[in-house]
Specification:
It contains 15 helices and 13 strands. A seven-stranded mixed sheet has the order 3-9-8-7-6-4-5, sandwiched between helices. It has a three-stranded mixed sheet with strand order 1-2-11, with helices on one face. Strands 10-13-12 form a three-stranded antiparallel sheet. Helix 5 runs parallel beside helix 6. Bound molecules: pyridoxal-5'-phosphate. The site of pyridoxal-5'-phosphate has 14 residues, from helix 5.
Length: 399
């Protein structure tokens, strides 16, 4: 390694080690499901109850869905060969977008290669240097990066605090009154389910504030699609209210494929096709992935009981933890955070759980604020009640 590369990289790694925030990857030796085998630090394989997956409905391993994807590879090959606007656009992409629009109850949808790219590409296309963006303080990194890329002026409001949102909108209006620039456009953007806390954005209230202040409202349903609402349609179904102006989502979590999407009026998706750089300047997702995403979404459509099983499991697990004296709230999503605080302690607890065959990662700074380290448990529709009971007992014991 060159001396210059050492200068670029060494300090950051040493600081991360010293702060217990050094990241390394766990090796999983079996496919994603409610039980997996992982490689332990001593090199041995060990079975674990997986309480850490985003594959909330456990669709990655269903035979008929795997076979459908394999068939799609045989039919469509291994890659798309081009960007959507050049040669990459194939029938599966179009069918997937049509189905997402139908599933979400929107006029139209557009897909991206990841949810990350959907957020970055949408925000930076919608907003520019003179615009205002109002962002929840716990929004996902992909929203934050989209805001940075847009170069709009960002006003962060306190988590889920509508009074504070109103306050920052007024603050922004005041700064605008003193400016000679043309009137800015205003965007409110929020996660639907907050990824490290599992709580929900208050969609009806956000819609009211957006309407009263002439703001566009964008919701990221990464952890809401396939999870919230009776049939997994997301946040609007949960509240029984209308949709936000712009709905972003991912196909990589409950849908158990890969990709991101934006759903909304046709004018929005046409705009993104023309203006979103993370849509335009990248190779289209492999057609077989689009087929898989579409089939998996169809599966959710005809198996709403899977969404209900997930909800039952979350309720059961939270109640079991509470019975054991663990300080958790009933989660409205599939994510159950157990806040520890200290980074090193969270790591130790996670490692001890792993020794007992329970995989719950410790989430640390910078993913959450310093001193807010936590075990982030996430549940699947297919966990057995005995597994959840066992995990709750062990968590309480180790805590
Ligand atoms: C709230 C939120 N938005 C967007 C993403 C990005 O989605 P993807 O994994 O499909 O890139 C994630 C997770 O990774 C997320 O938690």
């Amino acid at each position: 390694m060159s001396r210059i590369l050492d200068i670029f990289t060494k300090d950051a790694l040493e600081t991360a080690r010293a702060n217990n925030t050094y990241r390394s990857m766990r090796l999983m030796e079996t496919p994603e499901s409610s039980r997996v085998k992982i490689r332990m630090p001593n090199g041995a394989s060990q079975e674990q109850i997986l309480l850490a997956s985003n594959s909330y409905l456990d669709l990655a391993n269903i035979d008929e869905l795997k076979q459908a994807m394999a068939q799609a590879v045989l039919e469509w090959g291994t890659g798309s060969g081009g960007a959507r606007l050049t040669t990459g656009n194939k029938t599966p992409h179009q069918e997937l977008e049509e189905f997402i629009a139908k599933f979400k109850g929107e006029e139209s949808a557009i897909t991206f290669n990841t949810g990350y790219m959907a957020n970055v590409g949408t925000i930076s296309a919608l907003c520019g240097k003179n615009d205002f963006i109002f962002s929840d303080e716990l929004n996902h990194a992909s929203i934050i990066d989209g805001i940075r890329l847009s170069r709009a002026k960002c006003f962060v409001y306190k988590h889920n605090d509508m009074a504070d949102l109103q306050r920052v909108i007024q603050e922004a209006e005041k700064s605008r009154a003193e400016s000679v620039l043309p009137a800015p456009r205003k965007l409110i953007v929020t996660d639907a389910v907050f990824s490290m806390d599992g709580d929900l954005a208050n969609l009806p209230e956000l819609m009211r504030v957006a309407k009263e202040n002439d703001c566009l409202l964008m919701i990221d349903e990464a952890h809401a699609t396939g999870v919230l609402g009776k049939t997994g349609r997301g946040l609007a179904e949960h509240y029984g209210c209308a949709h936000a102006d712009v709905t972003v989502g991912t196909l990589s979590k409950a849908v158990a494929a890969e990709g991101g999407f934006v759903a909304g009026p046709k004018q929005l998706t046409e705009f993104l096709k023309n203006k979103s750089r993370s849509f335009i300047f990248t190779t289209a997702m492999a057609p077989a992935v689009a087929v898989a995403a579409c089939n998996n979404l169809r599966y959710i459509d005809v198996h709403p009981e899977r969404v209900q099983n997930l909800r039952d499991n979350v309720k059961f697990f939270c109640e079991a933890l509470q019975r054991e004296g663990v300080n958790v709230e009933q989660s409205p999503s599939a994510i159950v955070p157990i806040v520890i605080g200290d980074e090193a302690k969270a790591m130790q607890i996670s490692a001890k759980l792993q020794e007992q065959g329970i995989l719950i990662p410790a989430i640390r700074y910078p993913t959450v604020a310093k001193g807010q380290a936590r075990l982030r448990a996430s549940l699947m529709a297919t966990h057995a009640k005995e597994e959840l009971e066992f995990a709750a007992t062990k968590i309480a014991e180790i805590l």
